[in-house]
Amino acid sequence: MKKFAVFSGFLGSGKTTTMMALTKYFTEKHGKAAMISNDLGHGVNLADNRLAQLSGLRASEITDDCICYVNEQLAQRLNEYYDDGCVLVVSDIPGFGVGALEHVYHGLAEKFPGQFTLAPFTVLVEPRTVEMLRSGTDGDLHYLYDTQLREADLILLNKCDLISQAQRAADLGWLREHYPLAETLSISALTGEGMEELSQALLKGEASMRRPDIGYGGREFRAAMGKMCEFYLQYHAVVCCDDFDGTAYLLDIARKVQAAIAESGEEIPHLKLLAWEPEGDFGKVDLIGKDRDILVTRPFAKRCRDIAVLLNGSGACPAERMEKVVTEAVNAVSEEYKLELMIFKTESMGMG
Ligand SMILES: Nc1nc2c(ncn2[C@@H]2O[C@H](COP(=O)(O)OP(=O)(O)OP(=O)(O)O)[C@@H](O)[C@H]2O)c(=O)[nH]1
Ligand SMILES: [Mg+2]
């Protein structure tokens, strides 16, 4: 059996972390699995794919376009993995993306009839988003939060390590009441909780191939997408002295970006700050909102001299604003740490 599942869900909900945990778990327990990171940035080796590869997983990426619009490229990639013995392949779509149920599942079924077995269309949501949906405080991004969940055959309430059992039960109850056509599971990609249940749901379940009306391209869609932008910066840094702390450096950049975005009243749903050194040690910091704790997703194991840095993420603000805020933070913090920078690439684009 060769199964394929799309993992959707808002920025920072944990798609990449869950795909990584699942790929590892599934390969150990059930058979070869692989993951595809789908990103809109131009070029190769964006942060999610680089992270998965640094972590030693069977992983690749499709960049430049949403997999919604490159069905042929996706089909070819899937066939390569299946020819290599994979029994499960998962791919995300960009975190502000909707419409993949129609464009990817129906696209594959229509263009490649009978070739791919589609697992339940899977959507991640974190407790904080459920809380905002429940209280009606999700504002301009309501369309994206809600529509992603309406596409789901399988909803994964992720980050359950952060909430109590009572909160988990309340969130699951609310999700089941409001999105009754989906199966709902609670997991923690960080601790690995729920990976067997998720494996079984993907192995045994099937895509419903429902066609919910999600108002694709309509006013609400355009208003929400018009807020979003993508940013990408890659550079190499040479360190002046032996006691350079890569984790502290990434954290300081994230703090500066967070402070600037908080001051302007805009929002930055996810900025990934990933750096690695030639021997393979790497560190990652995640900024997942202007009023949330900055996460050290992985600290560097030791001090380093030369690092490659990749900052990649999404803002709910104009693209030029995001670019200005992040590059100013990088320049200021790099100066404090006396780093010599060689910038390879900067890119920002609005989604409107
Ligand atoms: N506590 C906790 N943190 C998690 C969990 N899953 C993911 N995270 C953290 O949440 C942050 C965002 O996770 P990602 O997997 O990068 O989120 P994503 O959905 O892929 O984000 P985009 O690529 O921007 O769409 C990272 O710092 C993760 O370590 C979880 O189960 N528990
Ligand atoms: Mg991701």
Would you kindly provide a written description of the structure presented here, covering whatever features stand out?
It is a single chain. With 352 residues, the chain is of the alpha/beta class. It has two domains: 3-220, Rossmann fold; 228-350, Alpha-Beta Plaits, CATH 3.30.70. The chain contains eleven helices and 14 strands. The chain has helices at 15-29, 47-54, 71-83, 100-111, 127-135, 142-150, 165-178, 195-204, 219-227, 246-264, 319-336; strands at residues 3-9, 33-38, 59-62, 88-92, 117-118, 122-125, 154-157, 183-186, 229-238, 267-276, 282-287, 295-298, 306-316, 340-350. Strands 1, 2, 3, 4, 5, 6, 7 and 8 form an eight-stranded parallel β-sheet that branches. It has a six-stranded antiparallel β-sheet with strand order 12-11-10-13-9-14, sandwiched between helices. The longest helix is centred in the C-terminal third of the chain and has 19 residues, at 246-264. The protein is globular, with a radius of gyration of 20 Å. The relative contact order is 0.15. The mean pLDDT is 95. Guanosine-5'-triphosphate binds next to helix 1 and strand 12.
Rg, Å, rounded: 20 Å
Helix content: 25-40%
Q: Into which percentage range does the β-strand content fall?
A: 25-35%
Specify the overall morphology: globular
Mean pLDDT, all residues: 95
Q: What letter string, H or E per element, gives the SSE order?
A: EHEHEHEHEEHHEHEHHEHEEEEHE
CATH class of the largest domain: Alpha Beta
Counted beta strands: 14
- CATH structural architecture of the largest domain: 3-Layer(aba) Sandwich
What is the CATH superfamily of the largest domain? P-loop containing nucleotide triphosphate hydrolases
Uncertain spans: none
Largest sheet: 8 strands, parallel
What small-molecule ligands were found?
Answer: guanosine-5'-triphosphate, magnesium ion
Kindly identify the CATH topology of the largest domain: Rossmann fold
C-alpha termini separation: 39 Å
- Judged by helices, strands and strand pairing, the structural class is alpha/beta
Total tally of structural domains: 2
